[in-house]
Amino acid sequence: MKNISRSTAGALLVFSLAFTARAEIPEARSEVVSVDDVAWGYLNPARGDKGPRAADLWGDRTKNTAAGILLQFPEGFSSPPHIHNITYRGVVIQGELHNDDPEAEIMWLPAGSFWTQPAGEAHVTAANGKSNIAYIEINSGPYLVQPTERAFDNGERPMNVDPSHIVWQDSFSQDDNNMYDVRVAYLWGDPAEGNLRGTMLKLPGGFKGKIRTSAAEFKAIVIEGDIDYKNQQSIKKLKPGSYFGSTEDVVHEIAVNPGQASILYIRSDDTYGLLTD
């Protein structure tokens, strides 16, 4: 049975997140995808609407490459035992999901939960809400659903992390110009420069600022709360399930609606910083 909380949850990393003065903004090499604009299809066309709908946010889940995917599960969905050919990570965006061994007791993961599913391990997935959406991330593809007869042990162990077990760290010291209560949580990966890592960034309602990154790979998915993304002269509203990303030195200008915090899941291979006006 999977772990309900991370044994390493307290081993948070210190990221180079610092509030700085207004800086010159370099030419952007970025992309922005609203959840309203994604192209939904069926994860398994043979099952049609009996199975989840799927949409690629970035990458291509059908190829041997990394990808970020949205899965939408119908109310009452319950899969048969199965495996995947590759390991994936998941974050619940909406509704409640259960992902565990076939014999495990049902334990619903609400929005904001994080889980991992090792390649080759037999498991079931179920959905409990009227609308159930998860962000799924793979380091290589294709993302396939296979029968349990092909199960194998790749040496990895799964985990389920309820939002109440995610440990948030104050990102900034008292010496920083921290006018916002921004917090960060470490989920996975290696903090060394050039290595991939996954974090969550919690921005309070009313936050206005910029995320600056020089990462070769920076991908942010809106998990909770709407944000306004300023792109040149226009502003794009990004609801949960939306995505923005970049390569090299880029500044992402965002604002969070007052009265409601926002949580971003961020995949990157370098640190990122916050700029305030």
Characterise the protein shown here.
The protein has two domains: 19-33 and 165-275, Sandwich (Jelly Rolls), CATH 2.60.120; 38-163, Jelly Rolls (Sandwich). Helix content is 0%, strand content 42%. It is mostly beta strands and 277 residues long. It has strands at residues 19-20, 30-33, 41-42, 53-59, 67-73, 83-84, 88-94, 97-100, 114-117, 124-127, 132-138, 145-146, 159-161, 169-170, 183-189, 197-203, 208-213, 218-224, 227-231, 234-238, 243-246, 250-256, 262-268, 272-275. It is globular, with a radius of gyration of 18 Å. Mean pLDDT is 87; it is low at 1-16 and 18-28. The strands form five sheets. The chain has a seven-stranded antiparallel sheet with strand order 2-21-18-23-16-15-14, with no helix packed on it.
List the helices and strands and how they pair.
Blueprint lengths: L18 E2 L9 E4 L7 E2 L10 E7 L7 E7 L9 E2 L3 E7 L2 E4 L13 E4 L6 E4 L4 E7 L6 E2 L12 E3 L7 E2 L12 E7 L7 E7 L4 E6 L4 E7 L2 E5 L2 E5 L4 E4 L3 E7 L5 E7 L3 E4 L2
Parallel strand pairs: 1-24
Antiparallel strand pairs: 2-21, 3-4, 4-5, 5-11, 6-12, 7-9, 7-11, 8-10, 9-13, 14-15, 15-16, 16-23, 17-22, 17-24, 18-21, 18-23, 19-20, 19-22
Keywords:
disordered N terminus, Jelly Rolls, globular, 24 strands, 277 residues, 2 domains, seven-stranded antiparallel sheet, mainly beta, single chain
- Rounded average pLDDT: 87
Strand order of the largest sheet: 2-21-18-23-16-15-14
Largest sheet, in brief, is: 7 strands, antiparallel
Radius of gyration: 18 Å
> What top-tier CATH class of the largest domain fits best?
Mainly Beta
Number of strands: 24
Multimer state: single chain
CATH architecture of the largest domain: Sandwich
Give the helices and strands as they follow along the chain: EEEEEEEEEEEEEEEEEEEEEEEE
Low-pLDDT residue intervals, each spanning 5 or more residues: 1-16, 18-28
Strand content: 35-45%
- What's the number of domains? 2
Approximately how much helix is present in the residues? Answer: under 10%
Class per helix and strand makeup: mainly beta
Instruction: Tell me the number of helical segments per DSSP (H or I, 4 or more residues long).
Output: 0
